[in-house]
Each structure stands twice: as C-alpha cells, then as structure tokens.
Design brief:
binds adenosine-5'-diphosphate; seven-stranded parallel beta sheet; alpha/beta
Length: 709
C-alpha cells in the first residue's frame, strides 16, 4: 500500500500531498503519521490509501511512525476537503486550514489520564474511604478529577485504598462517546406552535437542504432548538452557525436553557489558540452535542454530525475573504451531503442564490409567515430626507425626534442604525471643497474621537490612522469641516436632544469581545438603557422585547455602491430593521432615506419580501448576473500587478473567444486598493473550464466572489 500524506510544511509544490509507502504500519485515511521530508521528520495527515504500483516499489520513502491511527478527520471531512480544493481552486494544504488548529497536530490527540477502578471490599474502612469505594462500585473507571469532584477524596484516602487492594490505579483515555442513552437534554425542547410544528415536521421529512423562510420574530430559533434536540436524542452532534461572533452570546444563552453548558462548544476566530484547541478536542471526543460559532465553526470535528443550521444565511460574513475563499453555505452543502446530515438555512430575507435554488426544487422550503403569537409586524414610516430641514440635529428628522421622545415618555426602548462609526464620514475643506483622503486607499478619511476627546483620522479600509491637520493639505485653508455623521457624532446629538436618556453605543469601537456584547444585552434587557445606537453589523440580529421603535438614520449608504448586490443588501438591512421592533408589544419602524421610491425601500416597508426576491431574480436573469450566471474573480497584487492583470485579461478574452463561451471579463483596479490591487471579473457560464488553461501563479482566484468592487 502507499499513502498520500499532507505534511505540515508550507513549502511550495507539496500542497496536494506526497506519496509514502505504508510499510508495515496500520493507517487509515485521516490518521496522523510521521514522515521523512528533506532529512527531517515531519507530522503529516494521511489523505488517502492506494494500491502500490509495481515499478515504483523502491523509489518512494516510507512512513516513519504512526502518531494516531484513529483518524483526526472523518471520512466526510476528508471528502469535503477534497471538494473545497476542487471547487475553490486551491491546494489541499490551503483547504485544510480551517479544519485543524495550527500544528503541531499531535497536541490534539487524546491524552491518557490517571483514574481509579473498583476491585473489592476489604474489611472495615474509614468513612471517607467507604464513600469512595461505594462511588466506584458498579462503575467501570473514573478519572481522578471527576472522582475528586464527586467524593472529595484526598490523595491519602486513595493511596490507602490502593494499598489495601480495594481499588486500582489506571491510565486511560478521556474519550467519551455520546450515545442515544445519554440524557443530554436538560430543559424541555420548546413547545412549538402549529405553524412552527408544520415547518419543523416538513424539514425533518425532507432529505434536501431546507430553506426556513420565516419573518422576523416567527420563532426560527425555537424551530432550530427542536431540530437540535431531536438530533441530540439520536446521539448525534449539531452545528449552528451565526453570522457575527458578537451574536454568539445571544444564541448560547438560548441554548443553555436546553443543554448543560458542558455540552455546548463555542468556536470563533477570537478564541486564543489554546481555547480553540480545547474546544476542538471536546468536539472531536463527542463531549459537545452542539457547536455554536461563526463561519469557521462549520469545520468543527464532529464525528457524528446530524445537522448543520446556518442562521441568517443571507449574510455576507459567511464568505471567507482569505484563501481558502470558501462560502459556508456551499461548503455546508457538500459537508452535509458527505456526512449524510441535514442542512437548514434560516432567514427572513433569503439570498438570491438560495431563493433560486428553492424555486428550482434543489432546496426544500418551509415557511413561517407569521410572528409568534400572531404579533403584528411593525408599522413602517418612510421619511424623505430631501424634504427635511435638520438645523442642528442632522441626521434626526422631526418625526424621528418625536417618536423617540414618545418612547422615553412611555419607558419603552429605541434602537437606531447608522452605517458609519466614528464622528464624521469625511472631513472637507470649505474653501477648495476637497476631502482629506487616505494615501493608502485614496478614500476619504473618517474622523474619530479617542477616549480623551482628541479627534483623529482613520482609514476604514486599510486601518491607517493620521493626525487631524490644522489646515487643508491642498490649499492651506483653516476651515476644515466634518461632514456626515458617524455613531460617535450621533451619540453627541442624542445627548443634546435628550439629556435624560440613557444611551448605549454598539459598534466595533465599543465592542471587541463577546463579553462586552453580553453585558450590553443584559443592560438592554434589564431596562438600564433607553436608546441603543449602533452600526448594523452589530445590532441587526437582536431579540430584545422592550424595543418598540427601530430606525435607520440614512438607508441609502449601500445603494450608492457600484455593486450588483447593493439593492439586495439594503433590502436585507431594512427587513432586519423591521425585525428589531415590536417583538413583544406592537412597534414602529422609521426609515430615513434620500430614495423613498427605490424598490428596496418600498418592498421592505410593506413587508413584501417574496415580491422583492422575484423582481430582483428577474432582473439578475435579464442582466445575466449571479445566480443566473457564475462569477470568478482574479486578484493581483504587488510587483507589476497592472501589467500582469492586463496580460491575464488578454488571455482570458482569447479563451472566451476560442471556446465561444457565453462570458465576459472586466478588468479594473479595485475600488479600495489604492490603485495597486487589480482584479478581473469573469461573468458567464461554463467558466470553470477556463481555469486549468490559465497561468495563475501569484494570482488569487475567488470563486463566487461576494465582495467585488
Ligand atoms: P426569529 O429568529 O424568527 O426572529 P425568535 O426565534 O427569536 O424569532 O422568536 C421571537 C420571539 O418569540 C422570541 O422571544 C421567542 O422566545 C418567542 N417564541 C417564538 N416561538 C416560541 C414558542 N414556540 N414558544 C415560546 N416562545 C416562542
């Protein structure tokens, strides 16, 4: 036998594995081994086993040792790895990155721990000794730590019992296997309403991926909980993906009511390497019944996977913007297919990709058309900002100010969305009318205030900071004016308008860790705050019963971006906004916009999601944009990016013509790359056939790009 082994080395040319003879070792696909590479011994993961070819017998080196015969990755994971490498056009080594914590991988192997086993009674024992012996009697073996926790046994007691031959010491692995007999459910699974039950039953009965299309507040989380409980009762594991790390706190709380906290594992990119390793092992050992996390939690090493749920499946954060540039939805489809597990995509505003697959019948649809308890959706007021005279209060219109005042009077809560953090979205010279721009991205600097009240400039795309100059760098004039409000500015304006109101600000400046988010939610829930203002990425998924007014300050920010998904994105945001208000008591939504007639604003304000999706799908079909076509993006950076991009573009055009493909390729510097990053956008059908024919050294290939401006 010979094996294909992926070694722990980033050297070029070996990213798809090397061949080693298995010799007399016993290994399986997924086993961890030691192999020789350039005079060194290295760790490697066995990807596959093959029959040896006759003539090759002497030419290949042999595996040196087996670190773990028990596979580190399951068969379904290995197949998904291969699928990712094929589909996303990257090496297996690159595709492996999200599956395993960084090497050395042997630290992931279960270690043997000290424990004790019952042997026999032996005459009269002390009280403490008797407790330990009784506890161990009838049990197979108990690790020391657990034995101490249950009996308080001291080292002395254990030593005596061993010496008298009543118990014996033994090192064993801690692996616990979940089984259907384990009573993993703490609280009851939720009682579903008849509509929720129908959706749940239909998803259980259908093996296809299911779209759970439910209006905001319809109880999607409750339906997820029921599905997870079922899977747990079968001794299988579930993965719940949420779009934003900060929102995991919210989900964990809900699921802690159902499971013992020990049964829930949390994975996200802000974990320290050691916590990540620990969570990884708890999942691999089967101790965790439910894994909650952001995008990369999809790769949790569940050996017995029964269910993957992607909550808010339409969110952009499910696309990884670094190699491997995978989309969690597509990858989850592959993983659940290989693992024979169910996939559920939940949302109030399906992505056009999901919607078109559901319409074709590739996905099954379950609908939750009403809010829980038939609570009404909020009434929506659209305010045309063109007609508003703001005075000192930009961007607060009079009806919005009145609505907030009304909530304060009634002791109800308000949430405000603004798409920009900081003090101002740009700083403009009042004489030459130019804006201060970042040399890095060529985009306007935003103005921020540090904790001491000092203003500074920040480029949101590159992270570059700069001093606020005393005069305009172009004309020397001293009248520099901050334009466009950010969340910090909004906070000041609100404090001036409502000095008595208790304000909370939620943006990536104030919230960096899940714990901060948890405290913020607690304050809102306990009514220690009246108004929450924040950027949408942070506040859009909240389930806070006290909110009866939700408002977006300027709805158009996304609409002016030159992106074919801009409309879809604004629609999703506005619908999420309507989802925050009136979840318990009837509520209201205010949309302030410069474009009240846009299709997105009209459809969202009338809660006509399906009409919007149909119209947008038709538009994409006519204009030949995804999901009607495919898209591939090539990104070129560094030395000679422009020249290399132009050459690649020319060869792509030639191939399109030679193969008569219904496709087109557009070349441009990226909007945020400061002119140094170039990309080529390929759009059409049968595009993948071109890839093997192109010279793609030093070119990033982005399949199904989401961010393409
Ligand atoms: P969604 O995720 O669809 O926006 P949620 O699952 O957050 O909706 O549900 C909205 C609110 O209704 C939550 O506070 C939730 O606890 C409550 N709810 C929904 N369904 C039920 C149910 N079957 N039993 C009890 N409460 C429910």
């Amino acid at each position: 036998m010979r094996s294909i082994v992926l070694v722990d080395s980033r050297s070029p040319g070996i990213g798809n594995g090397l061949t080693y003879s298995v010799a007399d070792f016993t290994v399986k696909p997924g086993s961890l081994v030691n192999v020789p590479l350039r005079k060194k011994s290295m760790e490697g993961l066995v990807l596959a086993l093959e029959e040896k070819k006759q003539d090759e017998e002497f030419s290949i080196k042999s595996i040196e040792g087996v670190l773990s015969e028990e596979p580190l990755l399951s068969d379904a994971h290995l197949k998904t790895l291969q699928w990712m490498s094929d589909y996303y056009f990257c090496s297996l080594r690159q595709a492996l990155t999200p599956f395993l914590p960084p090497p050395p991988w042997r630290t992931l192997l279960p270690k043997d721990v000290l424990g004790y086993r019952y042997v026999q009674e032996a005459g009269k024992l002390g009280k403490k000794q008797q407790i330990v012996l009784e506890y161990l009697n009838g049990k197979d073996w108990m690790p020391l730590q657990e034995l101490r926790r249950h009996t308080g046994a001291s080292a002395e007691t254990l030593r005596t019992l061993v010496a008298r031959g009543c118990i014996s010491e033994e090192m064993r692995s801690m692996i616990k296997k979940t089984s259907a007999d384990d009573h993993v459910l703490l609280g009851k699974a939720p009682e579903l309403t008849p509509i929720q039950k129908e959706a749940y039953e239909s998803m259980k009965a259908d093996p296809r991926p299911s779209l759970l299309f439910g209006v905001t507040g319809s109880g999607k989380t409750e339906v997820y909980a029921s599905l997870i409980a079922d899977v747990a009762a079968q001794g299988k594991q579930s993965i719940l993906l949420v779009p934003e790390i900060l929102l995991t706190q919210h989900s964990i709380k809900r699921f802690e009511e159902m499971f013992d906290r020990d049964r829930i594992a949390v994975l996200h990119s802000r974990l320290t390497p050691s916590s990540r390793r620990l969570e990884w092992m708890r999942i691999a050992n089967g101790e965790a019944t439910l894994v909650i996390g952001s995008r990369s939690a999809l790769f949790a090493p569940c050996k017995n996977l029964g269910l993957v749920i992607i909550d808010e499946e339409h969110e952009w954060t499910y696309k990884n913007e670094q190699t491997p540039r995978y989309h969690a939805r597509e990858t989850a489809e592959a993983l659940t297919r290989f693992a024979n597990a169910k996939l559920v995509l939940g949302t109030a505003t399906p992505s056009l990709e999901t919607w078109s697959r559901a319409k074709e019948g590739t996905y099954h649809i379950a609908r939750l058309p009403e809010r829980y308890m038939n609570r009404p959706l909020p009434t929506v007021k659209v305010i045309d900002l063109v007609n508003v005279r703001f005075g000192q209060h930009y961007p607060f219109s009079k009806p919005l100010i009145d609505a907030i005042a009304d909530r304060l009077k009634k002791g109800e809560q308000t949430v405000l969305f603004l798409n920009r953090r900081g003090m101002a979205s740009a700083v403009m010279c009042l004489k030459c009318r130019r804006r201060l721009t970042s040399p890095e991205s060529q985009l306007p600097f935003t103005m921020h205030r540090d904790p001491h009240g000092r203003a500074f400039l920040l480029d949101h795309f590159s992270g570059v900071e700069a001093e606020l100059p005393a005069a305009c760098p172009y004309c020397g004039n001293h009248d520099l004016f901050p334009v466009g409000a950010g969340t910090q500015k909004l906070e000041d304006t609100l404090a001036a308008l409502f000095p008595e109101a208790r304000l909370l600000r939620a943006d990536s400046d104030t919230l960096q860790y899940p714990e901060q988010m948890r405290l913020l939610l607690k304050k809102m829930e306990e009514r220690q705050a009246d108004i929450l203002l924040g950027t949408q990425s942070v506040v859009k998924g909240l389930d806070l019963p006290g909110i009866t007014l939700a408002a977006v300050m300027v709805a158009d920010v996304g609409l002016s971006l030159p992106h074919f998904r801009a409309g879809e994105r604004v629609f999703q945001l506005l619908t999420q906004l309507t989802g925050r208000s009136g979840r318990k008591i009837p509520g209201e939504v205010i949309i302030q916009t410069f474009r009240p007639d846009s299709a997105e604003v009209i459809a969202a304000s009338q809660h006509r999601t399906e009409d919007y999706l149909e119209a947008e799908l038709k538009l994409r079909n006519t204009l030949k944009y995804p999901p009607a076509t495919q898209m591939i993006r090539f990104i070129l950076r560094d030395e000679g990016a422009e020249k290399r991009a132009k050459m690649l573009h020319a060869s792509i055009l030639r191939l399109i013509e030679d193969n008569r493909l219904p496709a087109q390729a557009m070349i441009a510097p990226t909007l945020f790359g400061g002119g140094r990053v170039w990309h080529i956008l390929l759009r059409g059908l049968h595009l993948r056939t071109l890839l093997p024919k192109l010279d793609l050294i030093n070119v990033v290939v982005d399949i199904d790009p989401v961010d393409c401006i």
